[in-house]
Automatic annotation (TrEMBL):
<dbReference type="InterPro" id="IPR016186">
    <property type="entry name" value="C-type_lectin-like/link_sf"/>
</dbReference>
<dbReference type="GO" id="GO:0009986">
    <property type="term" value="C:cell surface"/>
</dbReference>
<dbReference type="InterPro" id="IPR052309">
    <property type="entry name" value="C-type_Lectin_Domain_Fam1"/>
</dbReference>
<dbReference type="GO" id="GO:0005886">
    <property type="term" value="C:plasma membrane"/>
</dbReference>
<keyword id="KW-0812">Transmembrane</keyword>
<protein>
    <submittedName>
        <fullName>C-type lectin domain family 1 member B</fullName>
    </submittedName>
</protein>
<feature type="transmembrane region" description="Helical">
    <location>
        <begin position="28"/>
        <end position="50"/>
    </location>
</feature>
<keyword id="KW-0325">Glycoprotein</keyword>
<dbReference type="Pfam" id="PF00059">
    <property type="entry name" value="Lectin_C"/>
</dbReference>
<dbReference type="InterPro" id="IPR016187">
    <property type="entry name" value="CTDL_fold"/>
</dbReference>
<keyword id="KW-0430">Lectin</keyword>
<dbReference type="GO" id="GO:0007165">
    <property type="term" value="P:signal transduction"/>
</dbReference>
<dbReference type="InterPro" id="IPR033992">
    <property type="entry name" value="NKR-like_CTLD"/>
</dbReference>
<dbReference type="GO" id="GO:0030220">
    <property type="term" value="P:platelet formation"/>
</dbReference>
<feature type="domain" description="C-type lectin">
    <location>
        <begin position="97"/>
        <end position="208"/>
    </location>
</feature>
<dbReference type="GO" id="GO:0004888">
    <property type="term" value="F:transmembrane signaling receptor activity"/>
</dbReference>
<keyword id="KW-1133">Transmembrane helix</keyword>
């Protein structure tokens, strides 16, 4: 626009600065969000650390308990203590000897029925693999009882339930090796000796299962 003197008057308008100050409310929310993020991260790290410590502590306690149980079991085995119900690794009415628990049952069953009965209680008919076991069972019972020894036929090999060949003690098992008795393919124990018998005969039985760990908490 030109004035009376011929000069051009410039109409200059003040422009708002391109860089305006930030909204104070928005800045406050950013700070709060950042603080919350730090707090949440700290909580997560703390929970993970507590979990690791808890698992580690549980593992240490379990290992210590197993060590104590193993020590107690070795003491019981060396002392020959089979009647201590509080510290025995066997269930009630089972007897602890060596590394096994033995159940002496007065059920009049065939050999196959006896095998199935033992299987039902997570056990097997016993394997008399040493003179010590034979003497132990002899001292525990004077009754005729099935054991886990059998053969497929009269000319077959006597074998224990785990598939191993039946060990024969000449003075305690005189009737088993090569007796050739027709169809007498199962064995029972009586008075310190093992005898062949018809599998359909009915006798009492013994069950054997692996002993667990001695339970330390039962002593507390």
């Amino acid at each position: 626009m030109q004035d009376e003197d011929g000069y051009v008057a410039l109409n200059i308008k003040t422009r708002r600065s391109a860089f305006t100050s930030a909204d104070p409310v928005s800045s406050l929310w950013r700070v709060m969000a950042f603080v919350l993020l730090i707090l949440c991260t700290g909580m997560v790290v703390g929970l993970v650390a507590l979990r690791i410590m808890s698992v580690t502590q549980q593992n240490l306690l379990q290992a210590e308990n197993e060590n104590l149980s193993g020590t107690l079991q070795r003491i019981l085995r060396s002392a020959g203590n089979t009647e201590c119900h509080k510290c025995s690794p066997c269930d009630k009415n089972w007897r602890y000897y060596g590394d096994s628990c033995y159940g002496f049952f007065k059920h009049n069953l065939t050999w196959e029925e006896s095998k199935q009965y033992c299987s039902g209680v997570n056990a097997t008919l016993p394997k008399i693999a040493s003179q010590n076991i034979l003497e132990y069972i002899k001292a525990r019972t004077g009754l005729i009882r099935w054991v886990g020894l059998s053969r497929q036929n009269s000319n077959g090999v006597w074998m224990w339930e785990d598939g191993s060949v039946g060990s024969v003690f000449s003075k305690n098992m005189p009737e088993l090796p090569g007796d050739g008795r027709e169809n007498m393919n199962c064995a029972y124990f009586h008075n310190g000796k093992i005898h062949p018998s018809f599998c359909k005969n009915k006798h009492y039985l013994i069950c054997e299962r692996k002993a667990g760990m001695a339970k330390v908490d039962k002593l507390l």
